[in-house]
Amino acid sequence: MRSFSQFFPKLGAHERCIAEAQVSMVASELTEGEWRVIAEQARFEAEVALCPDPLLYYRPPKKRHQPTRRWKESTATTGPAAPVASDDPLKSIPPAVYVEALTGEAVPENGWLNCPLPDHEDTTPSFQVLSSHWRCFGCGRGGGVIDLAAGLYGIEPRGRGYFELRDLIVEALDGASLDPKEDR
């Protein structure tokens, strides 16, 4: 039978300390296999103590601090600036009017209706017409008159497609009342 001291050179300082503590707790008459089990257990406990499993002790990386933005106070002495009116007459059309003209569906008082976009089959009203824009909470799309026409007709709202969409919108709005309350 061999003594446990033959394993000491193979162990690190921490492992050796754990092994010596365990040796003092067990009987002096142990087999070679039992000494190997004790040595493996000491190595394992030392590894856990010194190198914890990164999956068990995961700490997310620290987020980088974003500098605070400092807004400059307005230097105007005449008060707040007036909103700039758009040169595009289509942007002055209320959403209730263009939604009704493009989709053919009357917009109810609460502004909720089924999504008219062809790639979104809607069984419950999730499309809301607001005072400034429209929004579908089912498919997550929203915007203005150009965005709605692009979704309905499947035309990209950039380049030549933009002008095609404008022509289609003017065609759909031809004869439509520009007052949303007048049609109700």
In short:
This protein is mainly alpha-helical and 184 residues long. Helix content is 35%, strand content 5%.
Description of the structure:
With 184 residues, this protein is mainly alpha-helical. It has a four-stranded antiparallel beta sheet with strand order 1-2-3-4, with helices on one face. α3 runs parallel beside α4 (145-153). A hairpin with a 4-residue loop joins β2 and β3. The protein has two domains: 4-50, no CATH class; 89-173, Alpha-Beta Complex (DNA Primase, Chain A). Helix content is 35%, strand content 5%. It has helices at 13-25, 32-50, 95-103, 145-153, 160-173, and strands at 112-113, 127-129, 134-136, 142-143. It starts with 12 loop residues before the first helix and ends in an 11-residue tail after the last helix. It has five helices and four strands, in the order αααββββαα. It is rod-shaped, with a radius of gyration of 37 Å.
User: What best-fitting shape do the alpha-carbon axes yield?
Assistant: rod-shaped
CATH superfamily of the largest domain: Zinc finger, CHC2-typedomain
Number of strands: 4
- How many structurally independent domains? 2
What average pLDDT do the residues reach? 76
With strands numbered from the N-terminus, the spatial order across the biggest sheet is 1-2-3-4
CATH hierarchy: architecture of the largest domain: Alpha-Beta Complex
Low-confidence runs of at least 5 consecutive residues: none
**Helix-strand category:** mainly alpha
Q: What's the number of helices? A: 5
The CATH class assignment of the largest domain is Alpha Beta
Residues in β-strands, percent: 5-15%
CATH topology assignment of the largest domain: DNA Primase, Chain A
Radius of gyration, taken over Cα atoms and rounded to an integer in Å: 37 Å
